[in-house]
## 1
Amino acid sequence: MHAPSHRPLVLRHAEVLLTMDAGRREIADGAVVVEGPAIAWVGASAELPAAYAEALRDGRAEAVDLQGHVLMPGLVNTHHHMYQSLTRAVPEAQDAELFGWLTNLYQLWARLTPEMIRVSTQTAMAELMLSGCTTTSDHLYLFPNGARLDDSIEAAEAMGMRFHAARGSMSVGRSQGGLPPDELVEREPAILADSERLVDRWHDASRHSMRRIVLAPCSPFSVSRELMRDSAVLARERGVSLHTHLAENDNDVAYSREKFGMTPAEYAQDLGWVGRDVWHAHCVKLDEAGIALFGRTGTGVAHCPCSNMRLASGIAPVGAMRRAGVPVGLGVDGSASNDGAHLLGEARQALLLQRVGYGPAAMTAREVLEMATLGGARVLGRDDIGALAPGMSADLVAFDLRGVAHAGAWHDLVAALVFCQPGNVALSVINGRVAIRDGVFQDVELPPLLARHRALASSLYEGARHPHLRAG
Ligand SMILES: [Zn+2]
């Protein structure tokens, strides 16, 4: 299923080809040739090598014409909780900050089932793919009622999306001074054993890999110091990445100071949670010393501007991070704290929010597009995605800019991608396979998926509000 096309794919006549290659080339009337899972050639359409032109004439290659489109590397999403697509805009959690918001939602999430994980993951991936995303991470940290990370991995395979599945966990319940209710936490030996099982079963470290496992205790306020440290040891033994939430808001920092006597960055360092194989979500309140530490060690950050605004967490100092050499990617974050998951839209919000905090020159369109592609790739520890060049994975998207949203912006179509209101992709190619053509999924039926998602979301919400109505 979802094998790359057996014929070379020639994407040509793109109005602008944004390569994100070493020279950051932007090629007018650009073309890309895809062979198998990788990119074979990149250049101007007029310079297409004769062998490919001949293959097109003989029908041994397939052409896709992209006049009026910007063609670019697929976007990389570095932070999400896809199960939350079932609990968007929940009235009880609309107007709270992080800790109050979580407390209101935990009781809903305690009723998640394996089917809910599968359907919500596929729905969240459909939304991301339409918005230009081709690689995503997902941080799943609660496993009630028999749910497993395998449920979301199988969902990703059905969608054909490049996936870094983060095995989240919570082990410190309310009775131990943590935030989550006791019924949602797991025993730490079971978490570590399941992490090992998942790496054995699913992790693929190879180039062009479609599936990697990440170890991801949920946050300092829901797991113990020991689990953080043991997870880091295990991740390094097995060569997988580490991910968690860090320094999300002032309360988060206060918790760290009170409970551990350290800033979040000091806590991370103390537990071995810095390095090129680690990335932290948010870091809105990462202090100067923390930024320097992350820069020195290559520790990555997933910047989630909409979620930070939604929960009034603050403005992450992304410019200072980038200047210090911190790898920064974008994340839409879970659908319950960012009820929209449009990754190109998230890039637009990142640009706008930096300007609110730090002035009109704080971030350019090209910088934020770099964060959304190469930045995300670096955060996930990959050098085979995020740019279009021979030998890179064939993950490409094209946006048709001939509509009303981009009228008047044709003097700089690359900047228009984020200055104007972002739309959905016309074309998405992932691992050499056309997933979306003319804005339509090629082998996913969206209406039945959404109908099932709607039914599950309403049973989850109504069931939690009226527990006496719970059917068997
Ligand atoms: Zn999150």
## 2
Amino acid sequence: MNDEEFEAAGQQLIKYVIDYHKNIRERRVMPDVRPGFMRKLLPDHAPHTPEKWDQLFKDIERVIMPGVAHWLHPHFYAYFPTANSYPSILADILSDTVTCVGFSWASCPSCTELEVIVMDWLVKAMDLPEVFLSTSPGHGGGVIQGSASEATLVAVLSARTKFLNGIKEKNPGIKDGVALTKLVAYMSRQSHSSVERAYMIALVNYRILDTDEKQALRGDILKAAIDEDRAKGLTPFIVCATLGTTSSCAFDNCKEIGLVCEQENIWMHIDAAYAGSAFICPEYRPLLNGVEHADSFNFNPHKWLQVTFDCSAMWVKNSNDLIQSFRVEPLYLKYENENEGIMPDFRHWHIPMERRFRSLKLWFVLRLFGVKGLQDIIRKDIRVAHKFEEYIRNDPRFEIFGEVILSLVCFRLKGSNEINEKLVKRINEDGRIYMVPSRVDDIFCLLSTMPTYFLLLSIYLSIYLSIYLSIYLSIYLFVSVSARSYLSLPFSVCSDCVVKRSI
Ligand SMILES: *Cc1c(COP(=O)(O)O)cnc(C)c1O
């Protein structure tokens, strides 16, 4: 492909991107395909000689789109949202263009320095503790990970190294494998599965703690577990707390947990993957209280802050804890001036060596929306969620589950789990909207995003149809408003947004 061909193809693809967003509502929200569908559409060998762009371009609609779940579709209510915006897409084009792999400062100084700067910007925009600033005296700082799962794993592995070293100092000659059996980590029943996974990968003992009636982990429960484990001769070393759980957007009591962690000298990691974006609005910042006790904190701008996947923002109080866990220094990665310590070498802060220029996405989004623009979107989404909550409360067949705090509305039809399972199935089979179930304690739930009149109408329709099947209905429906359908307000092109915004 030469320059002219690239220009023509690029224009054609940008036009396609715009049309995709403009007309997304005309597509079926979830694909109607069976596993293996694509084998029938593509040859089983790569072409030996080059094909023409036009042939490939045609295959986007023929081969790819039939199997795409349209996460940005206004009627995709499942999971937490996934963010997207034109500024972020543009940033990714630029990132792909320079194709740097900024594993060290020298490997692409701009890649490292922009990341340091935008992560500091975010600390200030979200009123995070100053210890997370790159300029803090205690080696604090932020790094962009690919996902919340990676951030949790990095925190767990770093805490593990730190505490293993402590055990080894106290017990000279003890083998790593033996010391490892002494460590114990904590999570709650509502923690994301990625936390349990991180503990499994780290090969540490872990305990899954109970929560209170609001699905929140509390300090006294943690303290009791720690006391028990210390009495058994174990070394508690980390707790992963959650702000905005996946099942019901519950908030652990980080203030209480943080105080226990400080007294007991164990690492506190906070996973705020979804809810974190809301802290850019000062009125939601109190939900983050306790973060001042955290050794590491993480949220996903790619969920609710207009930044396209992948961008998971992580801060640590002391980056030396990470560096000590991940530092290996082969000769070919050494460069002059590297030990001046002015700028980090981010390869020591995460698991892969190479890294994309992801800070461009944050920089474009922060500049082209402004903090105010991002706040407006979060506030609008939460307002819509409360409007939907009102509809539900006004309907005697439904009840709200838990509290509507951010853009997630958990609601249920009064009655049994079974009929609610039928309702979810029916809604999804219908194909016009998509929701996923969840379970809080023993209650079957449904997770969804972006409530609208349309959602309510569709649910009503499904209820009327379901009544023929059974009289009792009781599903928890989880509805969260997502920023996605605003696709880059004020750059919005999605006609449904207008409908949504006017609700
Ligand atoms: C979405 C989510 C995760 C997983 O995020 P990834 O970036 O996909 O790893 C973890 N924790 C919570 C609370 C989440 O909402």
